[in-house]
Amino acid sequence: MKFITICLFLVNYYLISYGQSASPSVKSVKTKSISKLLGSIDSSMKIRADHFMIRLFLIANRSGSSKQAESHEISHKVLINVAEYDEYPIWHLFSAGPFLNPKFSNGNDSGDKYLLTIEHGTFDERRQTRLGIYSDRIIIE
Questions:
Q1: What's the burial of 119, exposed, middle or buried (CB within 10 Å: 0-12/13-18/19+)?
Q2: Which 3 state secondary structure label does DSSP give 11?
Q3: Exposure letters 94-113 (e unless 16+ CB within 10 A, then b)
Q4: Residue-wise pLDDT tens digits, 1-19
Q5: Is residue 116 a contact partner of residue 130, using CB atoms and an 8 Å limit?
Q6: Which has the closest alpha carbon to 126: 106, 107, 99, 108?
Q7: DSSP β-bridge partners for residue 59
Q8: CA angle at residue 63 from 59 to 66, to 5 degrees?
Q9: Among the listed residues 94, 55, 59, 89, the one whose alpha carbon sits nearest the alpha carbon of residue 75
Q10: Alpha carbon of 138 to those of 37, 49, 95, 96, 116: distances in Å?
Q11: What is the dihedral of CA 118, 119, 120, 123, to 10 degrees?
Q12: Where would I find the beta strands (DSSP E) of the chain?
């Protein structure tokens, strides 16, 4: 029994020391859609609600996408990633938009729902859109 324990200890020690001595490496990402998505992220934000975590990613659309006459402004799409607090969380990804010059304001957390307000539009015509974020769906309120 002592012999088996010592052998297991030595094997464990070897694996731990080998894993720490491995040198880091850099690999090229071949997936073009992931490269394009990550390259177009303008900003990100993390919100910790009572029952789930929300990550917001502001994605810039192409130039002139605001559909305003005589405007070269770009609109933005918001990717909303919702996950439970867990060791292996279940992730849900949603897309909302387009929004012109979006600004996020602090939301209200009511347990199973987080209410997020997005203010958007041109400087003289600002509007508000409220999103009800649940752990498995998002609705416009």
A1: middle
A2: helix
A3: eebbbbbebebeebebeeeb
A4: 677 777 677 666 666 666 5
A5: yes
A6: 99
A7: 41, 77
A8: 80
A9: 59
A10: 21, 14, 9, 9, 10
A11: -170
A12: 41-48, 52-60, 75-84, 91-100, 103-109, 114-120, 127-133, 138-140
114/120 Cα distance (integer angstroms)? 19
Q: Residue 126: pLDDT above 60?
A: yes
Nearest to 134 by CA among 102, 106, 105, 109: 109
Q: Which residue has the tokens 């894993």?
A: 19
Six token digits for residue 131: 């999103």
Burial class of residue 83 (count of CB atoms within 10 Å of its CB; 0-12, 13-18, 19+): middle
State pLDDT tens for residues 77-113: 999 999 988 888 889 999 998 988 899 987 888 888 9
Cα angle, residue 93 at apex, residues 90 and 95 outer, rounded to 5° = 165
